[in-house]
Amino acid sequence: MVLLLAMLAAAPVPRGLLPDTAVPSAYRLDLTVVPSKDRFSGHTEIDVVLKAGTSRLFLHGRELKVSSALARTANGTVKATYTQVDGLGVARLDFAKAIPKGPVTLVFDYDAPFGNSASGLYHVKAGDSWYAWTQFESIDARAAFPCFDQPGYKTPFTVSITTQPGDLAVSNAPETGTAPAGALLKHQFAATKPLPTYLMAFMAGPFAIASGVAAPTPERKEPMPVRIVATQPNKEMMEYAIQNTGPIVGLLEKYFGRPFPFPKLDQIATPVMSGAMENAGADIYGERIILLDKGASTSQKQRFGMVVAHELSHQWFGDLVTPIWWDDIWLNESFANWMGFRIGDEWQPDLKISEGALDEAFDAMNVDALKAGRPIHQPIEKSGEIDGAFDAVTYGKGGQVLAMIASYLGDEKFRDGVRLHLSRHPYGNASTDQFFAALADAAHDPRVLTALRSFVDQQGVPVVHLERVAGGLSVSQKRYAMLGTTVAAATWSIPLCVRVGATRQCSLLDKVSDLIPVTGTGAIMPNAGGTGYYRFSLPEQEWLALIEESAKLPAGEALALTDSLWAAFRAGEVSPSLLVAAAKKMAANPSALAAVDGGARFAGLRASGMIPETSLPAYRDMMRSIYSPVLAALGSDPKANAYKADSPEKQKLRSDVVELLAVEAQDKDLRAKLAAAAKAYAAGDKSALDQSLLAPGFRSLVAEPQAAQELFEKAAVSEDALFRGSAIGALGTSGDPATAKWLLAHQTDKRLRFTDQLSLLHGMSNEPSTRDQAFDWIKTGYDQIVKGHTHIASDLPNLPGLFCSEGKAAEIESVLRPKVNKYQLGSLTLDRAVERVNDCGVLMKAKGAEVVKALNDAPRPG
Fold first, then answer.
1. Helices 398-409 and 432-443, interaxial angle, to 10°?
2. pLDDT of 289-309, one tens digit each?
3. Structure confidence at residue 448 as a pLDDT band (50, 70, 90)
4. What is the phi/psi pair of residue 498, to 5°?
5. How far is CA 539 from CA 131, 467, 468, 505, in A?
6. Which residues pair with 549 in a beta bridge?
7. Which of the residues 137, 278, 287, 311 is marked catalytic?
8. Does the N-terminal or the C-terminal CB of the chain have fewer CB atoms within 10 Å?
9. 311 an active-site residue?
10. How confident is the model over 594-606, as pLDDT tens digits?
11. Alpha helices by DSSP H, 351-504
């Protein structure tokens, strides 16, 4: 017996999928959650079906102090020993005797610590009270209860939450009643529809509530309860969300052709999330996303519309139909990203939310172009690889690829394929292949599978070269690569749309080269509409012709031009002087995004350190020359609502241009005006500074160390999410080494939340003058930062990724690789950071002198 137990204990620990010995069929969770305490407790029962008799079972649990574990069978109760066997939360049950195959109920009593960031079950103090929320995606449900923490297992959950009298408790399903539990109160909830563990949610605390309904629609005959849930300090900030959630639900129901799949919807705000989470019937958002007041900027409204539509679309695509395993999570996120921009546009067309999809896709190309990467659809074998799938490739690339295929198929055929997919797998699981099959069946066009697979199943960005020849345009494709980098060859089936003058033609480029019979005398736009997921290259005279037209291009084409031109520079194919020319011409484009895209990319070049200190005056002069006339035409009064009669597009353009001039050009007069307004705002005069100008206002203010310290003191105790986030963000990016030193010394200030600490580190890492200080702190504080924060551990190696030096790339690798290996998290992130730093160093050696010359030759302010 001793030998048998030793053999069982030595059995390999599953690092990814669990053995399918047990299949869960239902959960009953009874938790005691008092947010002001350090720990919570729970009683969990899991009904499972054993496929074979066993004395040992693997499941999941992380940092749970299990006081009792047992199995109830038809023949009685069997005690078990619970042991966590790896750092990511794999646990093993060793039974006192073998359990026969068939139905079994696993029963656990335990307690566990609250987290302090958006991971597992965490608590945060807001004002004078404590609150608790959950965040379980991807593998953090195991930090709240023992479970089989895999998306392929969907079961009903019956939840009860015992908390303090007077506190609100929320979960996925409607509350059915309460009952006294000693000095506490137990809240009971209806059983959920079948859900995976990562979509479960619960929270407790003295929350404020705004109640409303989503009005009936043709797809849903009855009104549906909708609530906004926030901490008490933000109780006056819920009106915008309660007014606009219902209309977005209605637009989604119309698209999917079926009602909201769950009986109620709570939209919940938390102070320590930067993003949001699509828990079934209980979406959770960072406060700055969901809580807007009457002075909200265009950018805030755009983010609200896009993110809310994204998360709510998941209720169908992800919650109703869920991936079998994490290698298909791209489909959830890519689709929701596309829907977020699409439905956001339908909700408020004047906000032009969909333009952000193109901007995001072109940003994703910078990640996808790296050798260290992955295809959208990537096999995931180990749990430590899961969070790597939640990256720009999944969101930006995946969303754009789906948009490209939808455009190729036609909107109705693509929508019909989506509806067919949902109808085939309601409240179940489905794979990528099953989604592809539904699209092909609905469109009656199997070619869509070829095009989709070429983008989904292989890594990289195609670049299409075009030249005028007799009879049309000669086109060829290859995989894009940075200067000095060799990548494996690849070929795509590219839905290629080209415009020459007024003539547009679309075709499927499925070979290395071809001839497109499009002729004309106008400039060549190789990505008509900007919707294609590819870059393009042109002979220099064709670049110049297209740049000359850039002020008149539609937003998507303008963004595609800027992206492809800068990509050609990074590949060593065009002179930096063309980048200056394009930025100057594009500043007159009516699209706010397009008008500042060139300047934003130059800002990235400056932030990388590729522009030497001696050339910064020339750089700032160039930025003033390009953007000062734009601001002069728009007006620059910083007061709140000074330009409320302007269109959202014009308001956004103003705020973006102000940021370029204040932060990049360091315009003295503008900075002084913004700093004075920001100081008054921080002192309580909210009319002094428009919300759209908080970032450049506070960045202008923190130029002085004393002002920075005073702002820190105000932000650290503020419950105003917008002010706190904007101020902390500005402090991190001050660029002043003395301020950075002071902030790093205050990283352990108990008033700072974990998200505040990360924001400061991100900001310092983004500025060349403070980057080394941040990296030195990360070297010594890595273990402290990642402890208990799996999602942070996956992203942390990205922080030093803006260095620009081959030598620094080697240092980052040698310092961080042992830490990444220790935690089994962040390997791909580190690979990419090291490659980016190295590539930048190679480019600077080859093109640095040309960049300096282009800046010196650039126009000066008049």
1. 20
2. 999 998 999 999 999 999 999
3. low
4. -120, 140
5. 60, 7, 9, 20
6. none
7. 311
8. N
9. yes
10. 999 999 999 999 9
11. 355-368, 392, 398-409, 411-424, 432-443, 447-456
